[in-house]
Amino acid sequence: MNWHAAALSILWVVRDLFLNPLFYAGFALAFWDLRRTSMFERKFFGIRATRPLRLTIIRGVQGLVVGIMISALLILSGVVVDLWEVAAVSILGLVLGAIQLRFVSPVYSISVLSALSLAISKWVPHVQGFFGMVLSHLGAFHIIGWSGILCGVLLGETVLVAIVGRHSVSPVVTVSKRGRGIGALWVQLAFMVPLVIPTVGSLWSAPVYATSPWHMLWTVTAGSFALLALPVLVGFSGLFDNLRPRVAVQQTAAIDGLSAVLAGGGAYLGTIYDSSYAVLAPWVILVIREVSRWWLDHRQSLADPLFAPADEGVMVLAVLPDSWAARLDVEPGDTITRVNGVPVHSQYDLHFALSQNPAYAKLEVVDERGEVRFVSHTVYEGERTQLGLIFAPDGQSPRFIKAGGSGLLQSLYASLTEAGTGASGLGAAHGLTTAEPATPSKRTAREMFTRSPAAREAAMTKEPSDNPD
């Protein structure tokens, strides 16, 4: 083996990856998705639980690791495709992504091209010229190789969604069917997975293109074997107010795993028996994914809100990491009914009860199953500001999120709706910033977290409360 040539090929692959504009476009979409979430958190709760840049870097590394493993499997399995096909899949993916961002997944472009290839090879007569050359390449689409690549992509998505999705939720405020402000959790998973796949052929017959050092979307190697760096965007997102995010993540990961098995099985059967198995596999996968997405949204529409206002106590919408609430194993969906033996009906009551004993906190917590447990924590100096709880709204909010269904990057279609502010709007009690005076029930979450106990107690004795409880 020529190790020098192998090392040089790897360097070319890395170079072409970093020269690929799709690589940066995918990262930009993933970052902007998280950035919008951080902005919404600031508007709703006065704090930012999501760190966009940090999460983008972490997920980029996770996607890189998975991409290396999947690329090794593809190379060892002997998958080879033509550069023309890579160009067709990339361009069609961009066109479909302009219609709907979730269509940028290679599942859709490979499915369309496989059906188009079958139709051209069976019913379209031979045509001369450039158009005929394009039809010839499309008719010779290596559907078996692309089914193998699709298997790798779906396998990588399964691993990333299953492992990372459990801990990647963000709190927001949305509106219920009755028009009330309720809490919701946002799952946003977008990963740029760089794949390295073997390719043959060239895009152009002219030698000048085959030797050009500037290759924007693919490596050009005339009449020889080459390794191609192909960035692929995978993931899942959705706004869940009536369904636990872990249920959606588990269903999505299971469907991705099943789809990977079907794609791999289609490639294997197409190699052993007939290529029609490989042609059929992407379409079966596409139907399964769309039915799964519809069923997930349908389950949401039938269920009751998870973070509706509690009859007693205050409901936890999110727990910030590295806070003492997280160390007490308080989870989203839990309801805090008593603090230090004092019943609480609002955030104001909770912080007032905490201020009565600055050195110790004992919480009575009711989980989603209705089971009661007691958690306690010794509060050391400086920890009072590290409560780390974000509470669900009490039914009224001047702002809320309106989002569509689930799918890759679908959270980018969400919009912030202003319902108006006024005396009847209690959204500021849940971290929203308004222009109204800050009465005790309308303090922002940041004020509650940062004020000292003595300052909170002094303020509450001076200011009248408009809390209806």
Automatic annotation (TrEMBL):
TM region positions: 6-32, 53-77, 83-99, 106-124, 144-164, 185-204, 216-240, 252-271
InterPro entries: PDZ_sf (IPR036034)
Annotated Basic and acidic residues bias: 459-469
Residues covered by region (Disordered): 425-469
Record bears the keyword Glycosyltransferase: no
Alphabetically ordered keywords of this record: Membrane, Transmembrane, Transmembrane helix
Transmembrane helix among keywords: yes
Name of the protein this chain belongs to: PDZ domain-containing protein
